[in-house]
Amino acid sequence: MIKLFFITFLWISSLDVVANENNGNSLVIGKLPIDTLPHDFSELNFKEVGSAKFSVLFWDIYNSTLYTKSGSYLHNSSPDSLFFEIEYLRDITSNDLVDRTIEQWKYLEIAESEYSQFVPTLKAIWPDISSGDKLALLLQNNQSVFYFNDIRVGNIEAKEFSKLFLDIWLSPKTSETKLRNQLLGEIE
C-alpha cells in the first residue's frame, strides 16, 4: 500500500501540477511558459478574436474569450500561439468539469482512445471552481498550459491535445454553434 502511494505521489509530481515561483512576466522563459499571467494581457501580444457567455436556460455558467496573435482563428490551420480564458459564473467541481469535457468529446464523436490518455492529467490539474474563478489555456511551443486564476497549474505537452480540447468550442460540429460564432468574432 505504501509503495502504491509513493508511486502515485511520484507520478502526480511528474505532471508539473503545481506552479513554480514566478520568473517574470515575459510570455516564454526559454521554452517554458510563464508561471504567472500578467494582469494586462497586452503584454502577451495577443488580440481578442471574440468572446461569449454560455448560459443554460436562465443560468449563466461562464464567460469565455479567445485570443490569438493575429486576432483571427481558422479551424483548419490552428495558430502556433493562442490564449483561451473562461471566467466561471457558477461553482463547479473538478469532477464535473472533467465529466462535461468528456461529454463534449463524445458529442463531437471523438474516439475515447484519442482523449482517454489526457483525462488523468486533467483530473490532477483542474481544481474545484468557485464563481469568479478563471481557468485559461495558453497554447505555446506546441504545449497546452493551464492557468487557474492566472497561476500555472499544469501542462500537457502532446501536440494533438490543444486542438482536441479547443474543438469543444471551436469545431464546426460543436454543440454550441452560437457560442462558437461569438468566440470567432462572427456575431456579437
Secondary-structure blueprint:
Layout: H1 2-14, E1 28-29, E2 32-33, E3 47-56, E4 59-68, E5 82-88, H2 94-107, H3 112-115, H4 119-125, E6 134-140, E7 143-148, E8 151-156, H5 159-170, H6 177-183
Tell me what you see in this structure.
The protein has 188 residues and is an alpha+beta fold. The chain has one domain: Chalcone isomerase (3-Layer(bba) Sandwich). It has 6 helices and 8 strands. A 6-stranded antiparallel beta sheet has the order 3-4-5-6-7-8. A two-stranded antiparallel ribbon has the order 1-2. Strand 7 and strand 8 (151-156) form a beta hairpin. The termini are far apart. The model is unreliable at 1-31 (pLDDT under 50).
Instruction: Estimate what percentage of residues fall within beta strands.
Output: 25-35%
Tally of contiguous helical segments: 6
Say what the CATH topology is: Chalcone isomerase
Label the overall shape: globular
Largest sheet: 6 strands, antiparallel
Tell me what the CATH architecture is.
3-Layer(bba) Sandwich
Radius of gyration: 16 Å
Notable characteristics:
188 residues, 8 strands, 6 helices, globular, alpha+beta, Chalcone isomerase, disordered N terminus
In short:
This protein is an alpha+beta fold.
